[in-house]
Amino acid sequence: MLLTSLYVPTMKYGLGRYVYGLAAIAFGICAFAFHDINTWQQVRALANDPHREILTYIVATIEILGGAAILWPRTARAGAIAVGAIYCIFALLGLPAIIAHPLVYNGFGNFFEQFSLAAPAMILAARWARLGYYAFGICVLSFALEQLFYLSATASLVPKWIPPGQMFWAIATTAAFALAAFALLTGFKARLAARLTTAMLLGFGLLVWLPALFATPHSFENWSEAIETFAIAASAWVVADYLDRR
């Protein structure tokens, strides 16, 4: 059976835990550095809240402290719960857009992007490891659907210098996400799928968002997208580490 002996102490996980914690810290630092609340996608739902700026900085502080806690074995579980709660809130803040436009997949895509960051927190908390694992598998399926529905937009993000072409890689990565979701949800070659998904997401960060940061280093949106991409890669890494310890 897939995933036996599911209760594994937090400190037993590998490098993925550290990358995941550092990504949470980076999110918080980015919010404090730019003070750009209006373009922070995750908190746009709070646009009419008079205290949204204060709430945003509280959230950023929790991300920094929670991310730092994840880096230390003794506090990793508590840090994962704190950070995971923030990502769950971000996901729930996307529900109004889904309800308002249920036939537009972008709302679902944003929800599952945030939920994919909460899934490894469940794994690191140990008691909800199985739930976190399957939740991430569903999120990977959503990544495939989101790229499929917005294939042209996905292709536009692929650097033009990479052969054989932008659309080729858009289709190839969409298929890769779909296969990875199948592997994770069925358990067939799940460990390999988790490692390859981690590598692919890291590739997105290095080839797409890192050059964008060099081109426009003062863009909050580019920093946010780059950190989110590496955070999702860290999530896949945590899942892969979990499968290594199953």
Structure description:
The model is unreliable at 1-11 (pLDDT under 50). The chain is mainly α and 246 residues long. The chain has one domain. 74% of the residues lie in helices and 0% in strands. The radius of gyration is 17 Å and the shape is globular.
What would you call the shape?
Answer: globular
Q: In which range does the helix fraction lie?
A: over 70%
| Alpha carbon gap, first and last residue | 11 Å
Number of beta strands: 0
Number of discrete helical segments: 10
Instruction: Kindly provide the radius of gyration, computed on alpha-carbon positions and rounded to a whole number of angstroms.
Output: 17 Å
How would you state the average pLDDT, rounded? 89
- Element string (H = helix, E = strand): HHHHHHHHHH
User: Structural class, please?
Assistant: mainly alpha
The largest sheet is:
none
β content, as a range?
under 5%
Q: Compute the number of structural domains.
A: 1
Note poorly predicted spans.
Answer: 1-11
